[in-house]
Every structure is written in structure tokens, then in C-alpha cells.
């Protein structure tokens, strides 16, 4: 991919499928200034920012997130619309990657309503990983509290326990990466998000990636799909 690429993508997949890992990498990939020009928008990260800021929206969202449930559609749709409408949001850049949105049919329909013509979706990438692999990925995940880098205690360990290799920040474990919450998140994925595969399959924009391979191999295939 080079900096002139224009892509408007949705990364779709179960919790732990690697959407965040790859979205960060694609957004940073490129030549020269090391930017592809794609904006990475993660609804999970936006919600966690709201929780950390102590806002009313964050307090409401946290009860759903910690239980492994989806935050109500209207709240999420309003949040994403706010992002789209800001100049540094979806508009005006070379494109964007939506990571974790949409994940229900009403969210997908709301996205279609807001993005049409030259702003329409170009790619929906489905990250396929067997469910038995996901639990280990999620319980072992650690996230940098300062720069947001994603690590794993086995698959992608830092050189010093609990300290980010990129910025020296402290690593934390997400409150929804407990086995009970993970079980609920997988169930919610099966019942509410997996139906989007048929929704986007019918529109001819869906590409599936076998994401149960090394992050480097997945990344290279992703670039091929997005070119
Ligand atoms: P969100 O933050 O979006 O969580 P998620 O969808 O459950 O996805 P994850 O972030 O858990 O996984 P990922 O696919 O990004 O995997 P990652 O790259 O980190 O949402 C959290 C919550 O917010 C939801 O439960 C809900 O409550 C709410 N929410 C968010 N969006 C919403 C919406 N649209 N509607 C309603 N509610 C919403 O990788 C995981 C681990 O695996 C890492 O440790 C990584 O290092 C490792 N790994 C990655 N790739 C590989 C690989 N190829 N091989 C080995 N290990 C790998």
C-alpha cells in the first residue's frame, strides 16, 4: 500500500481476532512519513477513552462493557456520527478503518445511511479465527496505558514484564478480558455480529482472511486485499 491509497474499510471479527493489532499497523504503514493516510477508528477505544475521562457516556458504557454486552445501538451510532462529522474524522482523509463498528444490523444500516456515493464502503474484511484460539489471545493480552500498543504475554511479549517496549508505559489488562466476560462477548458476537457477514456478502464488498496465522502473514494478505 502507498500513501495514495484510498480505502474505506470495516474490520469485522470476533473478540481477539486481531482487528485492533492489524488496524494500527495498516494505519501506520506507508512510505516517507510512515503514514498511509488512513484513519483508524476503534469504537472500543473511543468508549474506553470515555470511561477514563469519567463522562456520563463512559459510566453508562462501562456497565455493558464489563459484562461483555454490547453498548446500546443509538449511543454507539451517535458517537460514530460525531466522529464522522468532525473534519479530522472520517471525512477529508485518504480513508479510514472502522474497527469494531458496525456490530449489529441496525448499526450497519445506520452506516449505510450516512455513507453513500463517493464515501461508500470499499472493503469489509472478515478476520476468521477458530473460537478455541480466541480465549488464549484475550486472557494473555496486555495494552499500554500510555500509547495503546497491544501486546501478548506469549505471542508478543515485551522485553521487560509489564513495561511497553515502544514508550516505557505501564501495561494493563482490560477489565473485559476475564473468562466470564469473554464467554459473553463470544456469544454476543455469534448472535448479533456474525449475521453481518451475510449482510456484506450480499453487497459484494466482503473479503475473508484466515487470521489464525502469524501477524506478519495476516498483515501482508490484508495489504493485498486492500490494494
Ligand atoms: P472492542 O474493544 O472493540 O473489543 P472486541 O471487538 O471484543 O475486540 P478486541 O479488542 O477484544 O479484539 P481485537 O480483534 O481487536 O484483537 P487484538 O488485535 O487486540 O470492544 C470492547 C467492548 O466495547 C465491547 O464488548 C462492547 O461492550 C463495546 N463496543 C465496542 N464497539 C461497539 C459497538 N460497535 N456496538 C456496541 N458495543 C460496542 O488482539 C488480541 C490479542 O491477540 C492481543 O494480545 C494480540 O497481541 C494477539 N494477537 C493478535 N493477532 C494475533 C495473531 N495473528 N497471532 C497471535 N496473537 C495475535
Spell out the key features of this protein.
227 residues, 43% helix, alpha/beta, Rossmann fold, globular, binds BIS(adenosine)-5'-pentaphosphate, 8 strands, 16% strand, single chain, 9 helices
Describe this structure in words.
This protein is of the alpha/beta class. It has a single domain (8-130, 178-225), classed as P-loop containing nucleotide triphosphate hydrolases (Rossmann fold), CATH 3.40.50.300. Helices cover 43% and strands 16% of the residues. The chain contains 9 helices and 8 strands. The strands form 2 sheets. Strands 2-3-1-4-8 form a 5-stranded parallel β-sheet. The radius of gyration is 17 Å and the shape is globular. The termini are close together. 32% of the residues are buried. The mean pLDDT is 90. Bound molecules: BIS(adenosine)-5'-pentaphosphate.
Give the domain tally: 1
Elements, N to C (H/E):
EHEHHHEHEHEEEHHEH
Distance between the termini: 6 Å
Q: Decide which structural class fits the backbone.
A: alpha/beta
Quick check: average pLDDT? 90
For the record, the CATH architecture stands as 3-Layer(aba) Sandwich
CATH topology, by name, is Rossmann fold
Radius of gyration: 17 Å
Full CATH superfamily name: P-loop containing nucleotide triphosphate hydrolases
Ligands (ions, cofactors included): BIS(adenosine)-5'-pentaphosphate
How do the strands line up in the largest sheet?
Answer: 2-3-1-4-8
Shape: globular
| Sequence stretches where pLDDT stays below 50 over 5 or more residues | none
Per CATH, the class reads Alpha Beta
Main beta sheet strand tally, sense and closure: 5 strands, parallel
Number of helices: 9
How many β strands by DSSP?
Answer: 8
Strand content: 15-25%
Helical content stands at 40-55%
